[in-house]
Amino acid sequence: MGVQWACESLGIPPALFRKLWDEFSDELGEPGPDGQLSHSSFEQLARIWRLRGDGHGPEAIRSALRGEEGTPVEGDSLLSRMESLHRALDHSERRRMEDRDRLMMAMIRTQQEIRDLRQELTIGRRRDRRKGFLRRLWGGGGR
Asked: What pLDDT shows up at residue 68?
């Protein structure tokens, strides 16, 4: 497997590939003739890339590659990420429901204000009708 193929397969630029190779060369071994990677080197590099993407530092990655006790396991990391996403989703859902409730209360208050204004307008019109045409026209006082 060539370096270009490995970069394309992992979705990383060649500069990052070289950086990872330099940083973890003791775990990855030496490239074969013509810069070819062995299958095991590629698998290790893919695992390094996944662990790094999960937010693990270089020492935790080295420990995981060596299989030491208490090291981050990819499944556990994925499970913790899923739990974190689940908590974030729950939080988002609660906020959405609270926002919906606030909007509904604001709509109810607005509707009540509109009803009150209509009622005031209707009462004002009734008073105007009782005054008579000339009093309304010249603004004369009425009872």
From this structure: 65
Radius of gyration of the chain from Cα atoms? 36
Give the count of beta carbons closer than 10 Å to the beta carbon of residue 82: 10
Under DSSP, is residue 16 helix (H, G, I), strand (E, B) or coil? helix
Per-residue pLDDT tens over the stretch 67-114: 765 555 555 566 777 887 888 899 999 999 999 999 999 999 999 999
Secondary structure class of 30 (helix, strand, coil): coil
Residue 64 near residue 72 (C-beta atoms within 8 A): yes
- Is the pLDDT score of 36 beyond 90? no
Encoding tokens for residue 98?
């609270």
In angstroms, the CA 18 to CA 109 distance is 63
Cβ count near 7 (within 10 Å): 17
6/32 Cα distance (integer angstroms): 14
What is the value of pTM for the model shown? Answer: 0.46
Residue 51 Cα distances to 17, 23, 46, 48, 70, angstroms: 15, 14, 9, 5, 15
